[in-house]
Amino acid sequence: MASRSHDAIPIWSWALPAAAGILLLLKFLSLVPAEAGFVLALAGVLLGGSVFAAVHHAEVLALKLGEPFGSILLAVAVTVIEVALIASIMLSSAAGSDAVARDTVFSAVMIVLNGIIGLCLVVGAQRHHEQSFQLHGASAALAVLGTLATICLILPNYTLSAFGPLYSPVQLIFVGAVSFVLYCIFIFVQTIRHRDYFLENDDDAGNDNDEPGLGAAAPQRPSNRTSTVSAALLIISLTAVVLLAKILSYPLDRLVSAAGLPPAFVGVVIAGIVLLPEGIAAVKAAMLNRLQNSMNLALGSALASIALTIPTVAAISLLWQQKLVLGLTGQSTVLLVLTLFTSTLTLGTGRTTVLQGAVHLVIFAVFMLLSAVP
């Protein structure tokens, strides 16, 4: 089943980006009213469809490349979508646009470490009771993630060169460069120096299945033709997402305000949109007793979200002289520290049960509550 689903191009995976392209063309030619409700609703649907299409084609290429390269490709593809949405709002000068990067990155970390990982552990434990993954890989990812989260999201509140939760231009350049370099070193370790830390443990995979048909056998790789077509459609889908995000940046801000939600909730919406397809893939892997793959997807997404987004928005901020708020509020700082601390405990043994998943889901529920009602 897996090989058939990834060695063919589903109709929706090219039809939705094509429909998005047609709508964008009609909009740029002024043949449809850009601010009409039905146009914005259609753009929102096609944006979501293009996100799913992009992640599908990234998954096809990921299977072709194999682990851990596949997880890296998925993380980068998702981060490109995230950056596009953030940049469109930053350049729109809408209310709260100076903090949308901070809110989105923080939301992505909380959704990944608590929502996605928590759900993976609960669903996996329901089917397999106890699951295992490579402790060395998870520890390395958490070390980098904790360092970047602290430098990028907490430390700006305590610097003296700029007033407020901001970095000065020199500090911003340095932090952006350090984030990117540290991520590159992590990728080197993940793909070359210690690649075995991020590969499935064959001794544990597939031995604890409680139901038939849920084995952890790896799907066959797609053909060269399918991979080539998916590579082209991935570029088209990402382009559609970028352009649709620009159209929807103002309406999204107005919609959040009309709902009586704080401006920071825009970041939760963006992070939720871009992480939904990859979150589904991670949960499916946990159900198939491939928790290592789930960890690669989840932790890789959180890392890429910080390490690639911060340098990009820093460059936008400096080039367009935009104010960039990075420091978290007090309650968000507490939640981030609690999440990092809990993650080191729950993922610090290499084996998981339903209890660890429940703890992460409780923290995620608190995060969602405080995002809507600070």
Percentage of residues assigned to helices:
over 70%
Number of strands: 2
Radius of gyration: 20 Å
Please identify the structural class as seen in this structure. Answer: mainly alpha
What gross morphology would you assign? globular
Report low-confidence residues grouped into runs of 5 or more.
205-217
Please work out how many helical segments DSSP would assign.
12
Give a brief description:
The protein has 374 residues and is mostly helical. It is built from 12 helices and 2 strands.
Key attributes of the depicted protein:
374 residues; mainly alpha; 12 helices; two-stranded antiparallel ribbon; 72% helix
What does this structure look like?
This protein is mostly helical. The protein has helices at 2-6, 11-28, 37-65, 69-90, 100-128, 135-154, 169-193, 224-258, 265-287, 291-319, 330-346, 354-372; strands spanning 131-132, 351-352. It has a two-stranded antiparallel ribbon with strand order 1-2. Helix 2 packs across helix 8 (224-258). The chain is globular and about 55 Å long. The N and C termini lie far apart (45 Å).
